[in-house]
Amino acid sequence: TEAVSHRRMALEEGRSLPETTQKEVPQTLGHGVALGAALCPQDVAALQYRAPQLAVDCLTQALPGPPHAALILDVACGTGLVAAELQARGFLQLHGVDGSPGMLEQARARGLYQRLSLCTLGQEPLPSSEGTFDAVLVVGALSDGQVPCSAVPELLRVTKPGGLLCLTTRTNPSNLRYKEALEATLARLEQARAWERLVAWPVDQWELATSELEVGPGTSDSDGFISGIVYLYRKQEAAQAEGVRPSA
């Protein structure tokens, strides 16, 4: 809805949420930032959302060749949090897709991407040919109610053989069911030799929780942070194995 898009844009831009939008917000919003059922009046920048920086750090260490030569796809790009991190490290060939026209409008205004496309991953294929990108990132959108696990093979389809895929998700209690389903999908693709895992990097201080429901056993609740994880995979160079088909 328009209200949800407004809250998401406010979150990404580091602005305070107007009081009129602070009631009955979704549990997750934007790039996977956890929001409680009733958000306290606070500057959302104080959430210290670290996923874009962590993902780009991980990708940069593994990507061969100079950054400016790599063609990157930022899936569920929002207003460009990931692109800002990529550009700061010398990545210049950036394409983005998002399911929200409002997000794309904001991203376009920032001038961070060479190309932006409207696409709701999980409901339609990515608007790119097979084997197009040196790296594909999905930062924060892999959670319940956003990008479904069934869309992961579509990310593989548009990645070049030997290319990298960087994915993140939260690991706090409210997202554990989705994380388990995601990891089952990731493991199936690895067993089928579609890709190989390079990194699975758990991070305790992922972002500040805004609700007591977001913290619990196994999370860094002593300092108010919830946890997350960065996955990095390399697509296999050779023909893919049985049981893994690109999306139609």
From TrEMBL:
> What Gene3D superfamilies does the record tag this protein with?
Vaccinia Virus protein VP39
Please give the superkingdom of this protein's source.
Eukaryota
SUPFAM superfamilies per the record? S-adenosyl-L-methionine-dependent methyltransferases (SSF53335)
Which InterPro entries does the record match to this protein?
Methyltransf_11 (IPR013216), SAM-dependent_MTases_sf (IPR029063)
Example GO molecular function term?
S-adenosylmethionine-dependent methyltransferase activity
Q: What is this protein called?
A: Methyltransferase type 11 domain-containing protein
> Which residue ranges does the record annotate as region Disordered?
1-23
Q: Where is the Methyltransferase type domain?
A: 73-166
